[in-house]
Amino acid sequence: MGIVSRDAIQHFQALIDEVDEPLQSTFKNMHQGYPTETLVRFLKGRDWNVAKAHKMLVDCLNWRIQNEIDNILAKPIIPTDLYRAVRDSQLIGLSGYSKEGLPVFAVGVGLSTFDKASVHYYVQSHIQINEYRDGVVLPLATKKYGRYIGTCVKVLDMTGLKLSALSQIKLLTIISTIDDLNYPEKTDTYYIANAPYIFSACWKVVKPLLQERTRRKVQVLQGGGRDELLKIMDYASLPHFCRREGSGSSRHSGNGTTDDCFSLDHAFHQQLYNHIKQKALTLESVAPVKQGSFHVDMPESDPEGSEIAKTIESELHKLEDQNGLSNSIDALKINGD
């Protein structure tokens, strides 16, 4: 770490030391005993500009306080049938760990429908997984591997991605903005698996809009990417949709729910939900747990995020128009025959 970096961290630390309660308490809860590493994440998120990183972190701390994020793991999505519906339509899970000890999160981008609950439930669920990752999964990995582990890798399955994904852009932009502003630099690498043409077309136009540090994190795999992923993780940690040779792996290409890390019956989701229920019990003596989603302030996307979302939407519309024209031509050919 260079002199400039050390100076930036020291300056940033001095500024954060001056913030009052309750910001100090929520910062302590957030950094989990690693304040310097947390400051570095926010500095990276603002290209080492101390003033911008300071504003970003203070805004994050205020967001956490205003939305009671420190207690979100005590707010279960109930009843269980509703939570199962959320899990069946917002596909994410922990499949294992890389050889370096980084948690491997699998995300079913193409087959997530986000159509079984309101936006607030999906946002609540996403933040709960973030908080469980930061408060439980990463500290356990740090203890197990004997060194600080503060990031994860994500494997994004594009199987089933269709033009109808256009309807999900608003929700995905909200979730992405929450991550960018409040959980910066938490993902080491994004691996894209089973990418269809629609992804490739969007990626070509979106890639130039991304910052260099973000572009470097994205690796598009050949097909399911099994052989490439086995270089960084053992077979047991491969997401189920990457285990088959070649491309086109489906959601259920594992051996049942024990392998399908998206399933509520998978060990990760059972542990997460049990953790949330136990947390909720500690608060029930103060106030009974109410049914209904836990509303979180929806952040406005930054200009870069808005431009990317608009670009994706525009590209999908173009593909939709081309697809419609292609279908019309096919219909004319059939009628002509």
Automatic annotation (TrEMBL):
Boundaries of every CRAL-TRIO domain copy: 79-239
InterPro entries, A to Z: CRAL-TRIO_dom, CRAL-TRIO_dom_sf, CRAL/TRIO_N_dom, CRAL/TRIO_N_dom_sf
Superkingdom of the source species: Eukaryota
Pfam families recorded: CRAL_TRIO, CRAL_TRIO_N
Protein's name according to its UniProt entry: CRAL-TRIO domain-containing protein
Species: Tetracentron sinense (Spur-leaf)
Lineage, highest ranks first: Eukaryota, Viridiplantae, Streptophyta, Embryophyta, Tracheophyta
